[in-house]
């Protein structure tokens, strides 16, 4: 099983528009962060894409990803879904739409905003066949489980994917650790976790909360993601404990 981190930045990316790098060193390439999205790949080469970030086209090109076998969405916030149109080219050589999955509420919101993707329009075929995560637990060679996570006043979805005897958890955009999250993520081989900044934030996990989740679910390895312009890569690497990786665009982790 393999993680490919397509994007590791917060909703505005790093640098922000205006060449605003904040506390991040612009001479460190791993500080240049696009919006969050990942690929999970099994030993057979099947791939799941989690979230269609605003920067999806550039991310797929940079990582040599020409196709995926399924798409999952954590929630409907713009930085996690507004690159959805870049899935169109993956439909060209398929006889059927891409399988897509999200919670009931996220499905409803995605269908309202991107009806042409899920229904076809003006002679163009449906791009994604969208289903609720509760309808299946096996997709493209992976089994999965999901859990609702508090995201300030909103909700996000955490996913646990399993294949080839390994488990990978993707938990981004949460502001509180719940017992259900700890239970779903327990004993995972890799935890990819929300870590916006070092100071507490009302809608996202900060560094101490991210590390607390890793400890509580006994993750064997942890990767930090969704970082803002205050999180300089090299400084953060010196601060995190053993077994914790500071994520960056293009990072690959094999399990």
UniProtKB/TrEMBL annotation:
Coiled-coil ranges from the UniProt annotation: none
Signal peptide: none
Name by which UniProt lists this protein: MBL fold metallo-hydrolase
Gene3D superfamilies recorded: Ribonuclease Z/Hydroxyacylglutathione hydrolase-like (3.60.15.10)
UniProt domain Metallo-beta-lactamase: residue ranges: 34-226
Highest taxon in the source lineage: Bacteria
Record InterPro entries: Metallo-B-lactamas (IPR001279), RibonucZ/Hydroxyglut_hydro (IPR036866)
């Amino acid at each position: 099983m393999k993680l490919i981190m397509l994007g590791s930045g917060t909703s505005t990316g790093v640098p922000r528009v205006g060449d605003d790098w904040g506390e991040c060193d612009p001479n460190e390439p791993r500080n240049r962060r696009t919006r969050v999205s990942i690929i999970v790949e099994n030993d057979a080469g099947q791939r799941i894409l989690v979230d269609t970030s605003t920067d999806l086209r550039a991310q797929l090109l940079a990582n040599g990803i020409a196709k995926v076998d399924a798409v999952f969405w954590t929630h409907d916030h713009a930085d996690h879904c507004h690159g959805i149109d870049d899935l169109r080219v993956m439909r060209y050589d398929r006889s059927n739409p891409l399988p897509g999955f999200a919670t009931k509420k996220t499905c409803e919101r995605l269908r309202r905003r991107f009806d042409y993707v899920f229904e076809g329009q003006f002679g163009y075929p449906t791009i994604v066949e969208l289903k609720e995560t509760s309808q299946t637990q096996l997709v493209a060679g992976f089994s999965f489980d999901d859990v609702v996570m508090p995201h300030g006043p909103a909700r996000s979805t955490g996913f646990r994917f399993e294949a080839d005897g390994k488990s990978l958890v993707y938990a981004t955009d949460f502001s509180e650790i719940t017992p259900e999250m700890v239970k779903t993520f327990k004993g995972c081989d890799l935890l990819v976790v929300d870590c916006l900044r070092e100071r507490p934030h009302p809608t996202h996990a900060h560094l101490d909360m991210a590390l607390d989740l890793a400890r509580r679910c006994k993750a064997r390895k942890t990767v930090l993601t969704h970082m803002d312009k205050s999180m300089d890569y090299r400084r953060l690497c010196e601060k995190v404990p053993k077994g914790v990786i500071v994520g960056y665009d293009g990072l690959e982790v094999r399990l």
